[in-house]
Structure formats: structure tokens, C-alpha cells
Amino acid sequence: MKRRQQAKRPAAASPSTLTATPARALSWRERAARALVHALARVPLPVLHRLGAAVGWGIALIPNRQRRNALINIGLYAPQRPAVELVRMRNRSLRELGKTLFETAPLWLRPSAEALSLIREVRGIELLEREPGQGLIVLSPHLGAWELAGLYLSTCGPTAIFYKPQRLLDDLIVEARRRGGATLAPITARGIRVLLGALERGETAGILPDQEPREEKGAVFAPLFGVSAYTMLLVNRLARRSGAPVIFMIAERLPRASGYRIHCLRAPEGIDSEDDVTAAAALNRGIEQCIAVCPEQYLWSYRRFRRRPAGERKLYTGSLRDASAIEIARRQRQAQSAA
How many whole angstroms separate alpha carbon 64 and alpha carbon 196? Predict the structure, then answer.
């Protein structure tokens, strides 16, 4: 008989409780960043989204690497679209990126119940069900409000979340992500053991699956949008070792700051394959199906194809002009098709 992990709402915590000053001395950058985050956390969400969209529009107007990289990636994602549509999609995606940056402060610092109250709908919630004692691997790409997706996941039962320590605001981020009850597992061998232990106890492991691994081992090249992407094998290893099913979860940002919609999506077949490339390709297909839900809310400026297979040219170089970025994407697709 299947069971559903019961959502447990944590007690409301004040922003000051979440970000108590740590014992270590803070640099002026850290103090300034904390002050800014605290200030933004008090601003209403509609205002934050308008501010974020304005900042994103500014990024889209001024030639810079971020907007160039976003256009290259969008050109790889939708090569059939004319150049003018690619640029429009890039500009809209940067406005959504601005919203992501500005909404993060209240999602970190406001009481959990207040942040969770912004969720208007959960689609595919039945995928959170599993057999008693069975773990669950939940993958959340950098799409929409991934901080809210992680918070929601942590209230659905005991959860361990794979976490990359940050140079700035690390203590604040850790406390914010823990406030829903999650255990944070650092991106180390010890952290992997924490994830595996959670799965073996029938708990949930949360992972951001679309980051490019920096290690030489534990990753392979597999297609993403038809382009070779250096892809992690951690999900495959955990799924095979624990027998836990794998799903994807995203938090789609709804129009006019009206809230968010959680989507739970089934992972493609083959993600637990014994063949590394088959498993990595399935992982990337899952990321693609998440992006298809709200493509303009994906983090297109991330250099996802930074590492290239031997003999292939680098992608994120050269002129900052839009025409140059579109041409880079076109040449890459042609080379991939000819391979």
C-alpha cells in the first residue's frame, strides 16, 4: 500500500532568527549583501518583480557576456526560430532572471508558511508517493523559483539537499534552506554519503541536476538540446544504489506576481541505466521536459556547455554582438549534426 509523505509546516521563523550573525568576522561585502537581502525581503513581491524585470531589461540592453551567453544557449535550444525571435526570447528570459534575483530574498527570509502560501497549485503531487521505506530522488533544475521548490520539498518529509557552499552569504543561505527541516549535504564525498543514507532510510534527496560537474570522474558527455553537455552521473549512481525512483520538480512563476505553480514530472526511462551515456541522456531529457513548461524562466545565462568534447571549439567566446552569438549557436548545431 502506497503512502504519501505528509507535509509538515514548520513553525514560522522571523528573518532575524534565520540570519543571526555568525561568530566569524564579516567582510564589508558580506555585511552589505546581508543588508541588501534584508531590505529586499521586506518589499512586496509585485514590487520586487517589477524591479527585477527592470534590471533584467537593463542587462538585455547593454552588450555583456551574460546576455551573449543566454543568446547562444537559446540558439542551441531553438535553432529553428528566426533570429528576431531568439533575441526576444533572450530579452524576456533576462527579465525573468531579474525577477528570480529579487524574489530570492523573501523566499529566504520570510517565514516558511508565508513563502509556501504563494503556491497556488501542485501538479503531479501523486509522484511524491512511494512504498513505505522507499526513498525518493527529486531533481530541480535552475528554472523558475527553485528556492521555493526546495522549501516545498523539505516540508513533504525528511529531506537531504545537495548543496554547494557559497563564498558570499553562505551562512544566511544555509539557515534559509534548513528552516523547512532539510539537511544540507555539501558537494563532497561526505555529502554524497549523507544523500545515500537518507535514501536508504526512505527519505528524500534533492539535487540541482543541470550544473556542469567540475570533477574529471563521475560525468560523461550526453546530448542536451542535441548538443554534447558534460553531465553528472551522481543521480544514476544514487538511483541504482538505493533503488529510489527519480522525479523532477519545478516552481513556475505565475504572471503578475500572482504566485507559483509546482510541477512534479516523471523522470524519463533509462535514468537508472547501467550504461552511463544512456543514463546521462535520460537525465538531460528530463531537464528538457522541465524547460518546456516555462522556457523563458530557465537560467539561460549559465555556461552549461563550457566544457567541450576533445577537438570541439569553445562556445562562450568572441564578440558580444547578437549576430555573433546566433552564428556561434548555428555553427555548433551544424557541427553536431555532422558528427
Answer: 41
* Helices (runs of H) and strands (runs of E) counted in the chain: 12, 9
CB within 8 Å of 204: residues ≥ 6 apart: 5, 135, 136, 137, 138, 153, 156, 157, 158, 159, 160, 198
Q: In the numeric block, which cell numbers belong to residue 82?
A: 528566426
C-alpha–C-alpha distance, residues 274 and 324, integer Å? 40
Whether 4 has a pLDDT exceeding 80, the answer reads no
Query: Are the C-beta atoms of residues 238 and 196 closer than 8 Å to each other?
Result: yes
* Element holding 281 (H helix, E strand): helix 276-293
Give every strand in the sheet of 246-253, ordered side by side.
Answer: 119-123, 260-266, 246-253, 136-139, 204-207, 159-163, 183-186
* Contact present, 98 and 54 (Cβ < 8 Å): yes
Q: Which one-letter amino acid corresponds to residue 91?
A: N
Q: CA 292 to CA 141: how far, in whole Å?
A: 12
Place of cell 543541470: 210
pLDDT of the residue at 24:
58
Q: Give the residue carrying C-alpha cell 540570519.
A: 19
Question: In the numeric block, which cell numbers belong to residue 175?
Answer: 539557515
Query: In the block, which residue shows the cell 511524491?
Result: 128
List, for residues 288-302, the tens digit of each pLDDT value: 999 999 999 999 999
Count the Cβ atoms, other than its own, within 10 Å of residue 243: 12
Q: How many CB atoms lie within 10 A of CB 55?
A: 17
CA–CA separation, 129 and 74 (whole Å): 35
